[in-house]
Specification:
170 residues; Arc Repressor Mutant, subunit A; mainly alpha; 9 helices; 2 domains; 0% strand; single chain
């Protein structure tokens, strides 16, 4: 195994240890020591890759979402579909959304992504419009998770588009 493969393997083990430990304790009670023990790595290895649990969660979100972003059209409809797909495909992250501290990390991550997709919405009134819409989408998403994701994704996308006041083609 070459050095790059070792680095990736260590990062993956830490992310898996993070998820295993967070499932037991919840995100707020999660400690770096708990992650290290669950991952089976040394503290030095952990700190070589990450500064804290927030960094691990952000890395995990980056890795999981990068597959969904590749090759997809950057439309509102496409972004919404990927949001619901992401949650369905990564059920092991859903439990983190009930923790306010973890939700803050998710919100920051999502805010950054939307800023990259829609760079024109970062100034003036548009940033407030975006904040309002994203808060509504977060509430809609949380309700969908709380009710066991009963509605199909395409119905959720259509509902979100309707609430945002956007057509499918935008």
């Amino acid at each position: 195994m070459n050095r790059q493969e070792q680095v990736e393997e260590s990062r993956k083990r830490i992310e898996e240890g993070f998820l295993a430990s967070a499932r037991k304790t919840g995100y707020s009670a999660l400690t770096n020591t708990g992650i290290v023990h669950a991952a089976g790595v040394s503290r030095m290895t952990f700190y070589r890759h990450f500064g804290n649990k927030r960094d691990v969660l952000l890395s995990l979100l980056e890795r999981l979402s990068s597959n969904m972003q590749s090759g997809a059209a950057h439309t509102v409809s496409g972004l919404l579909a990927r949001r619901f797909e992401f949650l369905q495909a990564n059920r092991n992250l859903q439990f983190l959304l009930v923790d306010p501290e973890a939700r803050e990390v998710f919100r920051d991550f999502r805010w950054k992504q939307v800023s990259e997709f829609f760079p024109g919405y970062n100034d003036g009134e548009d940033q407030y419009r975006r904040a309002f819409v994203l808060a509504g989408l977060d509430a809609l998403t949380m309700r969908w998770l709380e009710t066991g994701m009963r509605e199909p994704m395409d119905e959720m996308v259509a509902l979100a588009l309707q609430l945002v006041g956007t057509s499918r083609t935008e």
